[in-house]
Amino acid sequence: MRTIFLGILIGILPCVTLAQEISGTELLAKAIAYHDPSDRWQKFDASFFVQLKTPNSPERMSEVTIDLPNEFFNLSVEKDSITTQYTLDKDDCSFTICSKGNVQPTASSSFKEKCDRARLYKNYYTYLYGLPMKLKDPGTQIDEKVIRKEFKGKEYLVLRVSYDEAVGKDVWFFYFNPKSYALEMYQFFKGDPEKEGKNTGEYILLSEEKIIQDIRMPKVRAWYYNKNDEYLGTDILK
Questions:
Q1: C-beta of residue 101 within 8 angstroms of C-beta of residue 112
Q2: What three-state secondary structure class fits 230?
Q3: Does position 8 have pLDDT exceeding 90, yes or no?
Q4: Each residue's pLDDT tens digit, 81-135
Q5: Is the model's pLDDT at 151 over the cut of 90?
Q6: Cα Rg of the chain, angstroms
Q7: How far apart are CA 63 and CA 85, in angstroms?
C-alpha cells in the first residue's frame, strides 16, 4: 500500500509543480488573453460614462472618450450643475466650462495648467481602463517572480511592477484570479513598500465586468488607503 501511495504521489507532484511555476511575463500574457482576447486595445475607440461616489460629496458623472488610433481624448465632467470639458487632439488641447447654459471657451495657448491637467486625465483613464494591456508599455519593469498571496480571504497570483525613472516612481502590485487570470485588484505605493513607501498609496478592489469593444473592463472600482483601509470612494462604469 505504501508503495502504491508513493507511486501516486510521485505522479502527481510534477503536475502540481508545473501549475505553480509561472513567470511574470507568462502571467501577464494570460491576463491580457482574458481581458483582451481579440487584441483590440491598440485600436480602441469608444466613449463610456463613469459615475464617482465619494463620502460626504455629491456624485460626479464623467463621459470619457478614448480614441487611440487618432490620439484623441475627451473628458466631460458634470458636477453641481457645472460641466467641465477637457479635450486633447494629438498635441492640441482645449478647456471649456459650462454653467447653467453659459459656455466659456478657453484658448489652449493661454492655459498651460489646464492642458497639463488634460494630459494627466488622459494618462489616468487610459492607464486604468487599459489594464492589464498597458503593462506592455515601454518603461514598465515586470518582476518575473510571481507570488501567491491571500488578501481579505481570497487567494491571488500577484505581479510586482515598477517603472523606469522617467516614467514614474510608484511600485504597483496586480492581483489576478489564479484560475481565470482576471485582474481583480491592484495596489500602488509611493516608493518601495518594503522601505519608505509602506504607509503610502492605495489599493483598489475590482468587481463585476463590462465588455467594451470585446475588452473586459472592471465595472466597479472601490478605493482604499493602504495604511488604514480607509474607504475613499467608488467609481462605476456605465
A1: no
A2: coil
A3: no
A4: 889 999 999 989 998 988 765 655 554 445 688 889 999 999 999 999 999 999 9
A5: yes
A6: 21
A7: 9
Give residues with Cβ within 8 angstroms of 184, minimum separation 6.
Answer: 154, 156, 175, 176, 177, 205, 206, 207
Determine the Cα–Cα distance for residues 84 and 62; give it in Å rounded to an integer: 9
Q: What is the pLDDT of residues 35-73, one digit of tens each?
A: 999 999 999 999 999 999 999 898 999 999 999 999 999
Confidence of residue 4 (pLDDT cuts 50, 70, 90): very low
Where exactly are the structural domains of the chain? 23-39+139-238, 45-129
26 Cβ contact partners less than 8 Å away, ≥ 6 residues apart: none
Burial environment of residue 222 by CB neighbours within 10 A (0 to 12, 13 to 18, 19 or more): middle
Going by their DSSP bridges, the two strands 215-225 and 231-237 should be labelled as antiparallel
Which candidate, 88, 49, 52, places its Cα nearest to that of 212?
49
Given pLDDT bands bounded at 50, 70 and 90, which one contains residue 80?
confident
Distance, in Å, from the CA atom of 64 to the CA atom of 53, rounded to the nearest integer, reads 17
Q: Using CA atoms, how far apart are residues 39 and 166, in angstroms rounded to an integer?
A: 28
- Mean pLDDT, residues 194-206 taken together: 89
Residue 226 C-alpha cell reads as: 493602504
> Beta strands of 54-91 (E only): which ranges?
60-67, 72-79, 82-89
Counting runs of H as helices and runs of E as strands, what totals does the chain give?
3, 14
Task: For residue 25, give the C-alpha cell.
Answer: 511575463
